[in-house]
Amino acid sequence: MTAAERGFQFFNQILMVLLALICLVPLLHVLAISLSSSPAVMSNQVTFWPIGLNFNSYVKALENPTFLPALGLSAERTILSLAISLLVNCLAAYVLSKGGGRDGIAGYSGFVGFFIVAMLFNGGMIPTYLLVTNIGLYNTIWALVLPGAVNVFYLILIMNFFKALPKELEEAAFMDGANHWQVFARMFLPLSLPVLATVGLFMVVNDWNEWFMGSIYMKGDNVPLSTLLKSIISVPVVDASNANEVAKLNNRSIRAAQVLIGALPILLIYPVLQRFFTQGIVIGAVKE
Amino acid sequence: MDTVKAIKKKEKIVRRKDSWQLYLMLLPALALAFVFVYIPIGGIVMAFQEYKPYLGITGSKWVGWDQFRFMFEYPDSVQVFWNTLRIALLKLLFGTVSTLSFALLINEVRKKFLRSTVQTFVFLPHFLSWVVLGGIFLEILDPANGLVNEALKAMGFKPIFFLGENNWFVFTVVASDVWKEFGYGSIVFLAALAGINPALYEAAQLDGAGRWKQTLHITLPSIVPTIAVVLTLSISQVLNAGFDQIFNLYNPLVYGKGDIIDTFVYRIGLVDGNYSFSTAVGLFKSIVSLILILGAYRIAYKVADYKIF
Asked: What are A44-64's pLDDT values in tens digits?
């Protein structure tokens, strides 16, 4: 290695560490604020390390009577949505992965067209909103689960993975008298764990983070956590001279705690599934 | 030979008989997509009506192209169109440059542990919602006592009202989007870099090419198809400036340059209750987007053989 290359390596590594820190610093700052005492926060002493360490703002956040039910609704919605969405998309992907030939279904290209149109076009916000309310889903958990259950992008990802599985395996299973359901459940699903983990991670993240449907389809306090958070953080931007400033300052720690509780599930599952998704995306994106 | 044929024939008969199972497996996806995508598509006739909720789609007055004419004459919607284009193009430009540069630089890091640690942290913001990040940015960008302005003051600068001043708002939206996505977006480039034949580098080394020359003559040309695909596909997104992000960051102070088509459709439609006008604006956006998407896929297929099905 030449001196120039060593120099490049050195500065490049420093740059990379800096970039990683830039991605982390906003989170660390908010974490420090959530754990600091009110006077320290009010006098802007807190940067990345809590001053006057305490957990009061977390206790206060959880004492809020709407917070825990919202957390529960989010969990229910995420689990229900993951189960339904994964099953529906995998089933369709299994069928479409067989193509239109001898192994597949008649009218294959018609079905493909049907899903592509569904991916590229939609009625827009107002017609969809009117439909969901008209069929009686308003203020039920199904309004949060069903409208987005079919996701053609995930369907394609799973389908491409299914297509890559060796054909001989399923031929052998059919020879042994298995039917499609058995091949799907006992062979395709277990062999597709990397892509299922990837798509599952995307689904969980999307459903946990999604707040907009919660805000238009749910009523009053019966909202998922992300929607509740949205209403908590969207305090109008005020000028420094405002008289309410002191009251707002006191709330900074609580708001920080609420935001971090909202992000917690993502922060917890992310490291576990991280190794899958790079792999999964590459498999899904690269075609033969 | 005959037995093989006989088995194949028998298998064929069995397959045809049980293909009803395949249709049954496809049914849930078909039904859900039909109800939640296709039926609302029928609802776009509202764009050609003066829709009144108590009259419904069948009873509301038919006004033809009036909503669209109104849209092109209404100064706000013209402004909103340019805002959308400005924010989306700035994001596309800075996003692609930052993502590609990061991919090339992280790819040069030889220490495996450092590499994967850095990647873990830079991918993370992608998975946090704009609601959570909105909360975080409101805190650190606060004009009176946010971290960023404290730092600016300490360095002798005037505090900046990042989320309350039109031009700074556009800057903040673009910068925070770059911050959130540069790491995650690099995955597709890293995959392309990993696919380059190592023999090319060995040959170049024998010819006396240093790392810089190798980057210029091997690495970059090898990932041009991937860059082309990423760019063409993102062109189809130029009317999506990021509803989620802007909705979580903006306020009436920055409607001037911060209001985009999607936030406009929301305010006019669901807040002001002007369903027909909002649907017309949304429909206009969908049709332009659809044309862009089809064009982009066609180009991506031509330049890089990219196809989705």
From this structure: 888 889 998 999 999 988 888
Q: Are A76 and A84 in contact (CB under 8 A)?
A: no
State which residue of chain A sits closest to B179, comparing Cα positions: A23
Nearest to B25 among A95, A125, A262 (CB): A95
Give CA–CA dist A225/A202, Å, rounded: 18
A179–B18 C-beta distance less than 8 A: yes
Taking 60 as the threshold, does the pLDDT of residue A183 lie above it? yes
C-alpha distances (whole Å) from A177 to each of A4, A33, B175 are 66, 63, 58
Query: Helix axis angle, B166-194 relative to B75-108, nearest 10°?
Result: 40
Query: What are the chain B neighbours of A226 within 8 Å (beta carbons)?
Result: 129, 131
A121 Cβ contact partners less than 8 Å away, ≥ 6 residues apart: B37, B41, B286, B290
Extended strands (E) in chain B: 49-50, 61-62
Cα A249 to chain center, whole Å? Answer: 31
User: In 3D, which of A234, A242, A45 has the Cα closest to residue B143?
Assistant: A242
Contact A29 B147 (CB under 8 A): yes
Phi, psi of B238 (to 5 degrees): -65, -15
Q: What span, in angstroms and rounded, lies between the C-alpha atoms of A157 and A92?
A: 12
- Residue B248 makes CB contacts below 8 A (sequence gap 6+) with A230, A233, A234, B130, B131, B133, B134
By the 8 A CB rule, do B144 and A240 touch? yes
A contact residues 171-190, partner B, Cβ 8 Å cutoff:
174-175, 179-181, 184
Place of tokens 């990993």: B194
Other CB atoms within a 10 A radius of the CB of residue B7 amount to 11
Q: Are B54 and A214 in contact (CB under 8 A)?
A: no
- B258-281: buried (b, 16+ CB within 10 Å) or exposed (e) per residue? bbbbbbbbbbbbbeeebbbbbbbb
Of B43, B110, B134, the CB nearest to A130: B43
> Any idea which residue has 């995508």 for tokens?
B37
- pLDDT digit string (tens) for B126-152? 999 999 999 999 999 988 888 999 999
